[in-house]
Amino acid sequence: MTRHVEHVMGTVFSFDVRDGGFEGVELAIAEAVEWLHRVDETFSTYRPESVVSRLDRGEITLAGCPPEVAEVLRLCDEASRVSRGYFTSHPGGRLDPSAVVKGWAIERASRILTRAGAANHCVNGGGDVRLTGSAASGSPWRVGIAHPLRPGELAAVVTGRDLAVATSGTAERGAHIVDPHTGRPATALASITLIGESLTMTDAYATAAFAMGDAARDWVRELEGFEAFAVTASGSTWHTGDFPKLAILTD
Questions:
Q1: CB 3.0–4.6 Å: which of 52, 159, 164, 180 could bond 202 by disulfide?
Q2: What's the CA gap between 102 and 40, in Å, rounded?
Q3: H/E stretch holding 143
Q4: Do 34 and 108 touch, CB atoms closer than 8 A?
């Protein structure tokens, strides 16, 4: 077992590799960490010198950006189309693809570990998680979902193998997600967690679903391969049909 914690992209990333100490595991984690820092340097909206900040100010064109920028913006367009405009890469009118970037970066970091031979690992970036393989022989991974209205308590525990888990909510940053259709902060939900296969779109769709509020329940039902669990602003909960097959609900 090998573990590593890295502060990058304004949050904490953790790597948990459950395979035996195979040759190259430390190098693979170092490569994944280097990748995350490169993503931060390229996409951070808090760095005036980042590629995305310069692109937003019109100092460079998309053609002058690394190819990853065009890839991410294409993913943003896809998330916007599928979510009927509830996902946007321009919240508040400024270019900010962060709601795709983190999940996309974690997915790539996970693939780096897989290529190196780490068949069983978890990469967690600020609560958005990519689970690959198993936690131990015959044992699934377990990921706790923090209750947004009850500090220190869990609302559910996701269990499984080869899953992506992403949560959007108000617990950490307050009402920071805006409904693009109204221009006002989304406040109907306290949090929503999506489970899918790829963290790239699971993370993006979690942001869109939070902006939708309770309408997200029917929307997620229409998405193939995704399940959702939400805590509303009043403290009630709802979930899509197969979510209990992948999680333990605490209430």
A1: 164
A2: 9
A3: strand 141-146
A4: no
Tell me how far apart the alpha carbons of residues 26 and 182 are, in angstroms, rounded to a whole number: 47
Q: Whose CA is closest to 147, among 86, 231, 225, 38?
A: 231
| Token pair recorded at residue 201 | 């779109």
**DSSP bridge partners of 142:** 159
pLDDT tens sequence across 56-90: 999 999 999 999 999 999 999 999 999 999 999 99
Instruction: Give the length of the chain.
Output: 251
Dihedrals φ, ψ of 167, to 5°? Answer: -125, 135
| Helix segments in 12-121, DSSP class H | 25-43, 51-56, 67-82, 98-116
What pLDDT sits at residue 60?
98
Phi and psi, residue 30, nearest 5°: -60, -40
Residue 41 has pLDDT above 80, yes or no: yes
CA dihedral 237, 216, 74, 163 (to 10 degrees): 40
